[in-house]
Amino acid sequence: MSLNQELTQMKQAFEANSPLEAQTALYRHIREQQESADPFGLQVGQKARDFTLTDALGREINLYDELAHGPVVLTFYRGGWCPYCSRQLKAYQQVLPEIEALGAQLIAISPQSPDETLSHTEKDELRFKVLSDRHGLVAASYRILYDVPEYIQDVLQQGFGLDLAEYNATNRWILPVPSTFMIDESGIVRSAYVNPDFMQRFEPEEILNELRKL
């Protein structure tokens, strides 16, 4: 079963068990982002923005230092509280040996504070770098950051007990559009997947296909 087939099953379970009002609000927001006149994300051929961020263990990681060792698969996710994101990261972990065999590495970024980025279990299971973009500056530089509208804040707080300001240790409700960029050693974006529908993600097999083209 592919990653997105699994995510479709999760979506069906969400629709079967969540209030209709919450579903309507979330799907409305997805549609608004999809129809935005200002598209999200860096484009293929553009220069990747350099950054230095901290991982879950407190180490500073610089993108261009990592590119000196080979291509980088850079994926932005919403946070460990998002079940679709957790499933995505686990699926990417499963193909990590193949990513590394192709001379590349995987880096994942979320706006959560370093203490909230990974659970203890995930720290043990995930073998790639997971970084904290606490104020969303890196996501903004990749043109994927947005402020969560109040009606979605209400849904997340009242329907699911989520306070993103607390998770992200900031006073702003911000999220990245789920995105995956393939960046070559020269810092050029060679592939870009940016999808406002957070219930869909870039397939692991597509990551491998894109890396084989580099």
From TrEMBL:
GO cellular component assignments: cytoplasm
Domain (Thioredoxin) ranges: 42-214
GO biological processes: cell redox homeostasis; cellular response to oxidative stress
Record's catalysed reaction(s): a hydroperoxide + [thioredoxin]-dithiol = an alcohol + [thioredoxin]-disulfide + H2O
Residues annotated as signal peptide: none
Transmembrane segments: none
Listed InterPro entries: AhpC/TSA, Peroxiredoxin_BCP/PrxQ, Thioredoxin-like_sf, Thioredoxin_domain
UniProt GO MF annotations: thioredoxin peroxidase activity
Keywords, sorted A to Z: Antioxidant, Disulfide bond, Oxidoreductase, Peroxidase, Redox-active center
Cross-referenced Gene3D superfamilies: Glutaredoxin (3.40.30.10)
Source species, domain of life: Bacteria
EC number, UniProt record: 1.11.1.24
CDD domains: PRX_like2 (cd02970)
Entry similarity comment: Belongs to the peroxiredoxin family. BCP/PrxQ subfamily.
Entry function: Thiol-specific peroxidase that catalyzes the reduction of hydrogen peroxide and organic hydroperoxides to water and alcohols, respectively. Plays a role in cell protection against oxidative stress by detoxifying peroxides and as sensor of hydrogen peroxide-mediated signaling events.
Protein name in the entry: thioredoxin-dependent peroxiredoxin
